[in-house]
Amino acid sequence: MTHTAGPSPATAAAWDALGGDAALLSRITHHTRAGALPARLPVRELAAACVGVCSLAAAELAATRAGRDVGPVRVDDGAVATAFVSERHLRVDGRAAVSFAPLSRFWRTRDGWLRTHANYPHHRARLCAALGVGADAAVADVAALLAERSADEVEQRVAAAGGLAVALRTPQAWAAHPQGARVAARPLLTRERLDAAPARDPRRPLRVLDLTRVIAGPVATRTLALLGADVLRVDAPHLPEAADAHADTGFGKRSTRLDLARGADRRTFEELLSGADVVVTGYRPGALDRFGLAPAALAGRRPGLVVASLSAWGAYGPWGARRGFDSLVQAASGIAAVESDGAGDETGGVRPGALPAQALDHGTGYLLAAAVLRALTEQSAGGGSRVVRLALAQTAHWLVHGVRPEPAAPGAEPGPAGRLAETDSPLGRLRYALPPVSFEGGPADWRRPPGCWGADAPRWSAP
Question: Residue 412: its pLDDT value, please?
Fold first, then answer.
């Protein structure tokens, strides 16, 4: 059963953060389903708001291009819920995707819990080195070691080694933490105009350089590809993306490899930049600055550029330069504590919980795409190079402290029926979640499936 409603307060707040015209919110029709993304926190409401503002921003830009009024926008909780767990629905020749490596999990410590992330080989190596175990360490060996250590001490040691581990915190403990306090003082996202570059013709084909990894950034660029952008993902040859993550988020894009430490590849990148309209970055703050990829440096070489910058913890505060992922932000920000079911473990401690989806990743991804689309709309009238900045931790703060539960039609959790599709691809036969972004005249699916990682030439596909 569904219930039809207008935009929620969360949708209105996100649209305001994006600088959107409040009068356009009336274009949104929301088909609610109470069983979608069940959780203690208002995940359904956050997900619908993020997809809703992304759909409205897409409709606004399409109307600007066509010289017409903005048409209707539809948000369906069932479609949103399916898309927010797209990696779980993915099948490659019938095989389910692998989400987490064995050492990416919660661990009981002497004084609490610790969450680690070791999906990538280099992150696993740094974690093991910081713990003083071999790179092939078994889960049982790591569990025995961490059971005798303090969560805070391990968090600091692993971070110093460039690895990924955070102690479980309550919302109150995160609010008292220096990074949590800095996050709380910031808005959901920030938007900045850098210069007075000429206005961009919105009818011109859109070219996007995608320098992101894992989920949030790739979801944003996958959405821009859905809307017709020529998206070229650029990865370093020595940092391959996980095969299943690439298959899930590579729809509509092309993928190439460039080593920016090499002169020839650096020149190739500069050629691509000279024709780009948007650059989306998802590496930790400062990691790409040595290649001249800080927002101001990019806009200085390509006036009129829109730069979208994504980070885990925000580009500020004591954790501003730290690596992070959705699962770690959930643990540090208090979400995992709130979502605990209260069940105990063998030591008498209460096990941490998790959101029903990697909702910080997916939600921030749609917000990031919306911010790019709104920047392009504003740029078409007023020009200027633009920078938008988002962080998983800011989305987490909004979920815990800003989004409120809203009424919805009663019923069971909606299944994915009618919201999945299949296609052949260079990776094999793919089953995948259809996009949740929906507006009058908008696309229903991507124009192309993902290809092999790094297999495309480093050039734009359209003249």
Answer: 60
